[in-house]
Amino acid sequence: MNSSHVSGSGYWARLRKRFRAMGVLTAVAGLGGAAQGASPVEQAPGAATMLSPTLGTPSLSPDFQPPSLPSADWEEQTAGRWLRWAHLRVRYSLSYSDGTLAGPGQPASTITQTVSPGINLRLSDRWFVSYSPSITFYSNDRFRDGVDHLVALNGGFDWAGWYFGVGQTGSWMSSKTLVETGTQTDQQSYGTSLSAARALSTKVSLDLGLQQNIRLAANYTDVWSWSAQNWLNYQAAPRFSYGPGVSFGYTMVDPGTDMTFEQFLGRVSWQATDKLSLSVNGGVEIRQLLDTGLSDLVNPIFGASLQWQVFEFTTLSFHADHSVNASYYSDQVTQNTTLGGSLNQRLLKKLNLGVSAGYRTGDYLAAAAGVGAVRRDETFYYNIRLSTRFLKDGTLGAFYGRTENLSNDNAYSFGDNRVGFDIGYRW
Q1: Could you write out the DSSP letters of every residue in 145-209?
Q2: What is the pLDDT of residue 369?
Q3: Which of 258, 320, 339, 324 is closest to 285 using CA atoms?
Q4: How far apart (Å, rounded) are the C-alpha atoms in residues 168 and 156?
Q5: Beta-carbon contacts of residue 405 (< 8 Å; ≥ 6 apart)
Q6: Using alpha carbons only, what angle is made at residue 43 by residues 404 and 98, rounded to the nearest 5 degrees?
């Protein structure tokens, strides 16, 4: 960035926009406890469901959507609408699946109907709140009907040369089957994030962040996690930046083994062209298993994302992630690696095609002496969705997806095909 960006209001506007987006992503990440969060941005019609079946997420759930917080372009989104301070939405989906786990070793077929209303409120220029309940009905009595709730608050402010971001999320989930537990799992998750950014010079800036994530799961471990992550950024060129980072935290598990960890990180961000961008971060994590007498766990960690607008109506994206988190099971940690990608393509001017696919491995490691955590899962998934718009703000789509989980514990292996349609409208 050049000096005019630093000294002028344009730089601060871009910085606020960037940290607003970071705050949203951090906040939504809290919905999954220690799991990685999904994108909070509403997908365009035709976008394939991008919630991959990782630990702590539904095994196959095109019906599930995180709370859709508004972007910084609220004025553009609400232009011409009669309600400028709120976005309302409702969505209905019906699907048939033939292999969702009703419990470990109990695959079952069911018709699932989900109604998902929602609202985004603009409290001020920088403060937004979103709420989205989800009401789910199953035709098979082996599954429980349920109502899930997702809520998020996001905002920020300037003070003394700093920009501060605040995020708070809450979720109450009961209707979805998790890959890790192999059954519908009642859980509450709360996430709090605080971020701060400051330009130190025309090329150097500082990013600071604090997070609290709480996951309370019925019949499984409860997890409280506190962490800090700090980055120093160097803008080497207008489209290229890099910098080192350090993160540390404490995780309390009940029942189970408490942990501390340190991460030594680096990251690179490259906007190669207006249509191609790449972000990569990685490093090493050292995790201490407190009061166990076991050696520290030392693991590489990384994350990467690539966005490429190949043509005007063709977009490709890829992502990769490797992380270590507290398990739903006592005295265990999970080591997860995820690879995935998506294609979004407009067809015949009125149709949108979305395709996504991915692969995940999950290794369960002992976090206490005498615990034989030897489970390993390999998950493959793909989703295809074809959709169109109607009445300007309505969407109608049909989808098919398959998830296959291969585990050395056969009770958690399954193959699930899902086909269905959805219809939605926004005001």
Answers
A1: -EEEEEEEEEEEEEETTEEEEEEEEEEEE-SSBBTTTSSB--EEEEEEEEEEEEE-SSSEEEEEE
A2: 85
A3: 324
A4: 12
A5: 53, 59, 179, 377, 378, 379, 412, 413, 414, 415
A6: 25
Number of Cβ within 10 Å of residue 161's Cβ equals: 9
Confidence at 48, pLDDT banded by 50, 70, 90: very low
- Residue the block writes with tokens 């929602």: 118
Task: DSSP for 416-427, please give it.
Answer: EEEEEEEEEEE-
Give the containing element (helix H, strand E) for 248: strand 240-254
CA angle 321, 52, 215 (to 5 degrees): 80
pLDDT (tens digit per residue) in 372-415: 767 999 999 999 999 999 998 999 999 999 999 999 999 999 99
- The count of other CB atoms within 10 Å of the CB of residue 305 is 15
Strand ranges for 6-124 from DSSP E:
86-101, 107-122
Q: pTM for the full model?
A: 0.80
Residues with Cβ < 8 Å from 208, sequence gap 6 or more?
A: 195, 196, 197, 228, 229, 230, 231
291's tokens = 């009061």
Token pair recorded at residue 371? 């615990």
16 and 156 Cβ atoms separated by less than 8 Å: yes
Asked if residues 56 and 180 have their Cβ atoms less than 8 Å apart, the reply is yes
> Which two tokens mark 125?
């220029």
Q: Which two tokens stand for residue 100?
A: 């969702």
Taken in order of first residue, the domains within the chain and their CATH numbers are 3-426 (2.40.160)
Q: Each residue of 191-239: pLDDT tens digit?
A: 999 999 999 999 999 999 999 999 999 999 999 999 999 999 999 999 9
